[in-house]
Amino acid sequence: MLNIGVLISGSGSNLQSIIDEIDSGYIDGKITVVISDREGAGGIERAKSSGIPAVVFDRKNLGIDELNRKILDALKSCNADLVVLAGYLSILSREIITEYKNSIINIHPSLIPSFCGPGFYGLNVHRKAIEYGVKVSGCTVHFVDEGTDTGPIILQHAVEVMQDDTPEQLQKRILKFEHILLPEAVKLFCEGRISISGRKVTINREGLL
Ligand code: GRF
Predict the structure, then answer these.
(1) Would you call 182 helix, strand, or coil by DSSP?
(2) 130: Cβ–Cβ under 8 A, 6 or more apart, which residues?
(3) Across the beta sheet with 153-160, what order do the strands follow?
(4) How buried is 49 (Cβ within 10 angstroms: 0-12 exposed, 13-18 middle, 19+ buried)?
(5) Whose CA is nearest to atom 3 of ligand 1?
(6) Ligand 1 geometric centre to CA of 126 (Å)
(7) In angstroms, what is the span from residue 13 Cα to ligand 1's centroid?
(8) 108 among known catalytic residues
(9) What are the tens digits of pLDDT across the range 120-157?
(10) Hey, is 204 helix, strand or coil?
(11) Less crowded by CB within 10 Å, the N or C end of the chain?
(12) Are 141 and 182 contacting, i.e. CB atoms less than 8 angstroms apart?
């Protein structure tokens, strides 16, 4: 069974979706650490109430370099095999990305390569999608490389944009599907069903319903 480290910055609803699907038996893995880069992130309480070790390394106090050093140490000492960015907003160091090459995944609330990259986080993503006038947006789970939201795509799900959507409404509609897509990607990774060749990710769904 693989060990999973989850990095968060916010409410942790995506973290919760992984916790729930481990509890249900859908994911064959174990979260060995949850790390937040800020105080007061709701996900820390979610982890604690599920008995999962959780730590805060506050970026404001530590600075980005020290934050990344502490994260790498914590991931190693918890023997993480897979690192999940579940609403994590700081930039990971080259050391972490190299150490966990092809083993870090991120959830992004748009259909990459649209509405992603530097500055595209939170409500801003949905605001930009609505301003542009796209008829579909959605969510993407991808591997993390040195760029921002540029790594190979694992799974995507399209969500319709309604005529009078507000960014908040679109965010809410997409988030529901994030909570399905992220656990699915974690499951597939934990079962060794994902392979990468260049930018192309192949999933072996043999034997799955
Ligand atoms: C999600 O929309 C995720 O895609 C984005 O940040 C949000 C985090 O939500 N990267 P939560 O903290 O998991 O509730």
Answers:
(1) helix
(2) 161, 165, 166, 167, 170
(3) 54-56, 29-36, 2-8, 82-85, 104-108, 136-143, 153-160
(4) exposed
(5) 87
(6) 12
(7) 7
(8) yes
(9) 999 999 999 999 999 999 999 999 999 999 999 999 99
(10) coil
(11) C
(12) yes
